[in-house]
Design goal:
Shape of chain A: globular
Structural class of chain A: mainly alpha
Helix content of chain B: 40-55%
Number of strands of chain B: 2
Order of helices and strands of chain A: HHHHHHHHHH
Number of strands of chain A: 0
Number of helices of chain A: 10
Order of helices and strands of chain B: HHHHEE
Distance between the termini of chain A: 50 Å
Shape of chain B: flat
Strand order of the largest sheet of chain B: 1-2
Radius of gyration of chain B: 32 Å
Strand content of chain B: 5-15%
Oligomer: heterodimer
Distance between the termini of chain B: 45 Å
Largest sheet of chain B: 2 strands, antiparallel
Helix content of chain A: over 70%
Structural class of chain B: mainly alpha
Strand content of chain A: under 5%
Largest sheet of chain A: none
Chain lengths: 197, 181
């Protein structure tokens, strides 16, 4: 990729960044990645339940989204386009690597402790509580079908609107609401049974 | 958006039982957001970014090289074609067609998006992927909403929708007596 010296404007919109990226500005790719890596990662993590797999899905999603920008054509926001590609990549990876195995084998406390400093007893307690809750929430997602899980994760972690989810999943808003309705019912039943709600 | 609101209200009118469930959907979303996945370390992010950047560099550079090569070859062929009359002498030159043994790469799979094709032609694809790689899932049970059941015009029987254990079942009811519908 050719790297040009003229910078992209400060606070550029997604459209401006994409235009800069098309012109070969590395800085634009840097900014797009910084801007959307977190929602992309959260969606992928919820669908896969594993950090390394989620990072793989984010990587594949960014590459596919940027390589196939002609398929995007500005009909939706770049975030919507990216989350569509990332969530599809995550589901493909999940089918290959079996999400359920990853969640059950990983457990709530065996990883995800990147902070190497010494923690106070309170901090440890809070972190364990949060990890335990997150583990239960991740397990609850397993009781959903693929499309229900993808719909709910795009809603909860991707923070997309019903319309944006409908665009991502190539379906109607009514179907999105229906899937959220059934997903919510299953999640609530599961979490009530575990005493998490 | 008013269209979204209309859609939502129409759907809720058809599914009144969903009102309570949708009302606390935002709470469920907040619950999930409160227990968001742990952030990867900066080193992990940097590694991902480097691989993305490398991949984008690879996918761009060869394409530029191929375009330049294709342009050069087209120019050479055109020059040969235009200059051929100048080389013509009294001695007939045998017309031979030079076989190009090695295929000339014009596009790579990333450049090709196949929107539609006959399934019988898949084996003949030389570049790109068929548009449908996996099984098609047309609808799931939750996607289907029964609006009404009508009598079969051939058998005169009615179908009756019954909630099954997993999915909605359609059961054939008894034939309707003449004049009894």
């Amino acid at each position: 990729m050719a790297t040009l010296t003229a910078p992209c404007p400060q606070g550029a919109s997604d459209e401006q960044l994409l235009a800069c990226f098309a012109a070969g500005h590395r800085q634009a790719l840097d900014e797009l990645f910084r801007r959307y890596r977190q929602p992309a990662y959260r969606v992928a993590y919820r669908l896969l339940g594993h950090e390394a797999d989620a990072l793989d899905a984010v990587q594949e999603g960014f590459i596919k989204a940027l390589t196939h920008l002609h398929g995007f054509q500005g009909r939706s926001s770049f975030k919507t386009w990216l989350l569509r590609v990332v969530s599809n990549a995550a589901l493909d990876l999940g089918r290959q690597r079996s999400r359920r195995d990853a969640v059950s084998l990983d457990g709530p406390h065996s990883r995800d402790m990147p902070d190497s400093r010494l923690l106070t007893a309170d901090e440890v307690g809070r972190r364990l509580e949060r990890d335990d809750l997150r583990h239960q929430l991740d397990q609850a997602l397993d009781c959903l079908s693929d499309v229900q899980r993808q719909t709910f994760v795009l809603f909860a972690d991707g923070e997309l609107t019903y319309r944006e989810i409908a665009e991502v999943m190539h379906t109607s808003i009514g179907t999105v609401m229906s899937r959220l309705f059934y997903a919510r019912r299953k999640l609530r039943n599961y979490l009530n049974g575990r005493g998490s709600l | 958006m008013s269209a979204d609101r209309d859609n939502l209200e129409a759907w809720l009118r058809e599914h009144p039982e969903a009102n309570d469930d949708l009302a606390d959907l935002p709470q469920l979303r907040e619950l999930y957001q409160s227990a968001c996945p742990p952030e990867p370390e900066e080193a992990a992010w940097n590694a991902v970014y480097s691989r993305i950047h490398e991949s984008m560099s690879r996918s761009r550079s060869p394409r530029r090289w191929r375009l330049a090569a294709a342009g050069a070859m087209a120019a050479a062929i055109l020059a040969v074609f235009l200059a051929r009359p100048l080389w013509t002498t009294g001695v007939p030159v045998p017309q031979t067609v030079q076989n190009i043994e090695e295929p000339f790469p014009v596009v790579d799979p990333d450049d090709v998006v196949i929107v539609s094709m006959d399934a019988r032609d898949v084996a003949a694809l030389v570049v790109g992927e068929p548009p449908v790689g996996n099984d098609l899932e047309f609808a799931r049970p939750e996607d289907v909403h029964v609006i009404r059941c009508e009598r079969c015009p051939f058998s005169g029987r009615w179908a009756r929708a019954e909630p099954g254990e997993e999915v909605l079942l359609f059961v054939v009811a008894a034939a309707v007596e003449p004049g009894n519908d």
